[in-house]
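To: structure desk
From: M.T.
Subject: fold request, one chain
Message: Could you run this one when you get a chance? Sequence is below, nothing fancy, just the single chain.
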Amino acid sequence: MNLQGKVAIVTGSGRGLGLAYAQDLAAHGAKVVINDIDEATAASAVESITSAGGEAVALVGAVGSTETANALVAKAVDTWGRLDILVTNAGVLRDTVLWKMSDEDFDLVINVHLRGTFTCVRAAATHMREQGEGGRIITIGSPTGQFGNFGQTNYAAAKAGIVGMTRTWALELARAGITANSVIPVAATSMTESVPFLKEYTDALAAGDPLPPFARKELGFGTPQDVAGLVTFLASDEAAEITGQAIGIGGDRLALYSHPTMIVTEIADNGWTAESIAAVWADKFAADQQSVGEKIPAPPSA
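Reply: Done. Structure tokens follow.
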């Protein structure tokens, strides 16, 4: 999996999943622009790559604005003359139930995740099209965006929106040879530390203990390094024919998500009224109503 000569931007790559993506891309030969809001964190990430023989530079700034997006692309192009790969990883959480969520909590998460993905992809895709050699757009979704999750109105909206935008970009960018895919990761990061059913596993990793097979296989939960290989694969020439997909990874599990599709249809001559819908719902539709929230398997009994 050779990425020699390729240049990548990874937003939110000072630590956690973003750093794992950047390090793996660099280990496979890509030159990487690190992005973080903290200068020392960004510098440490760059050092972790250069000390291992890779090439990396940093651009400090919060994603969301057009200015930051343009600065990231300019950093890549000014430093190495090109841009081939964009990974939009930057994110924040402001979790609380709907009736307690403030405008500020909603707007911050939407701005960083959704608008930040949009502005960065717009800037990168514009340059890739002008460059004329194709490219790779890799956005980061979440199981919350696929299933919903209690207390995460803002995050669910952003992550679902990211996958929707990515499918649209796959259509719009195909003629330019640019692929667009979403990665749905599950890994131990600062964002999963507060998830109650994962606590024993995050504690185990923090203590340096191996995860049990149930966590790695049934829950698909592991380390950021377990996710990074999918990002590198999607950035490579091997994935040139893969676009518009939502692909999950975590621990030992790799999964392809379905696109939304109509699962039950009925036809009524001259259209439907409220009364005619009520008349058929129980027999024709009720059994196929979809669940909400991710269904977590029960751990094996002790």
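Reply (cont.): The chain has one domain: 7-256. Let me know if you need anything else for the meeting.
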